């Protein structure tokens, strides 16, 4: 009798083990069953914040759980990015970032994260072409006039960026290289600060993502829009000449993406990606992105992973050419 009971127990244990092995996603089948936090690396009111807040409410309804935005501004996005890289890989701590996260560790060796190794790409939210904007005190109205003026006045134009490891800094350095001009870099903390600096005339130029404040200043004639850094004419800014018409091959755009810590279960990543994509692919969300001067653009985690790897390599080449970018 004891032998029979033992055999039954062993058979039962084997059956349980077989079920667990055959169903690796059983532990995450109920995901999500509690609030999800999304770390915000940049200032409130900036493009990343605006787009995340647009997605927040419909994503909560889609997932059936609160989505909490957690501001963790600091060190050009390092604070939030490092925080998520070290968080549990369970899908409850996410990061909203830009392709700027691919710049930071190539410039700051103490960044404390590897954007390709430490994260699971979840979803691409959208893209935004950068714009070339100048203060009215700079006597130029076109990209060609700017290049000519800069060549005639080398080192006399100050340009703003939100730090060495920013899309704006890298884009401006690329612009200077292609145009064969030299301008002075003045770093600030965030798009809000560089916009105020440009409005006051403290600096004369910036290549930046678009914010409602920048758009309003351009409409009122307080800032001059010289061109967009899109590959062709942007549907978001009809009639505005692409910089590439003057500087062949010049293109600079900001991606907005969601990432999770490396090791997050594939089924969790898949559920998040499908939920986010479903939210984005609605006319209402596309209008909200358009109002923020961005375009909805989606990609699967695998496609986004390849995009990030290619961009990381491209940025590495630019950083090597620039040399000491931390100045």
UniProtKB/TrEMBL annotation:
It comes from the Bacteria. Residues 1-29 form the signal peptide. InterPro entries: BUG, Bug_dom1. Pfam families: TctC. Keywords: Receptor, Signal. Belongs to the UPF0065 (bug) family. This is Putative Bug-like extracytoplasmic solute binding receptor, TTT family. It comes from Advenella mimigardefordensis (strain DSM 17166 / LMG 22922 / DPN7). The lineage of its organism: Bacteria, Pseudomonadati, Pseudomonadota, Betaproteobacteria, Burkholderiales.
């Amino acid at each position: 009798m004891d032998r029979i009971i033992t055999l039954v127990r062993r058979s039962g244990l084997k059956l349980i083990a077989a079920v667990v092995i055959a169903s690796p996603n059983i532990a995450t089948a109920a995901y999500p069953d509690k609030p999800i936090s999304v770390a915000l690396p940049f200032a409130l009111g900036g493009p990343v914040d605006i787009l995340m807040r647009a997605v927040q409410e419909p994503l909560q309804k889609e997932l059936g759980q609160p989505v909490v935005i957690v501001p963790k501004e600091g060190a050009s996005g390092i604070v939030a990015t490092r925080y998520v890289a070290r968080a549990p890989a369970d899908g409850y701590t996410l990061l909203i970032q830009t392709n700027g996260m691919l710049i930071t560790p190539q410039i700051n060796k103490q960044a404390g994260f590897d954007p390709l190794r430490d994260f699971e790409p979840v979803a691409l939210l959208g893209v935004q072409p950068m714009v070339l904007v100048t203060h009215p005190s700079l006597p130029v109205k076109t990209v060609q006039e700017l290049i000519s003026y800069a060549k005639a006045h080398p080192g006399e134009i100050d340009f703003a960026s939100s730090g060495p490891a920013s899309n704006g800094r890298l884009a401006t350095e690329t612009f200077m290289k292609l145009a064969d001009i030299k301008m002075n870099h003045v770093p600030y903390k965030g798009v809000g600060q560089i916009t105020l600096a440009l409005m006051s005339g403290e600096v004369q130029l910036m290549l930046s993502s678009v914010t409602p404040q920048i758009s309003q200043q351009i409409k009122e004639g307080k800032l001059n829009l010289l061109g967009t850094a899109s590959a062709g004419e942007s549907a978001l800014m009809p009639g505005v000449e692409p910089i590439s018409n003057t500087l062949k091959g010049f293109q600079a755009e900001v991606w907005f993406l969601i990432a999770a810590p490396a090791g997050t279960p594939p089924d969790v990543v898949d559920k998040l990606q499908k939920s986010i994509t479903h939210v984005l692919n609605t006319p209402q969300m596309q209008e909200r992105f358009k109002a923020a001067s961005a375009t909805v653009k989606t990609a699967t985690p695998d496609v986004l992973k390849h995009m990030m790897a290619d961009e990381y390599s491209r940025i590495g080449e630019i950083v090597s050419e620039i040399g000491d970018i931390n100045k």
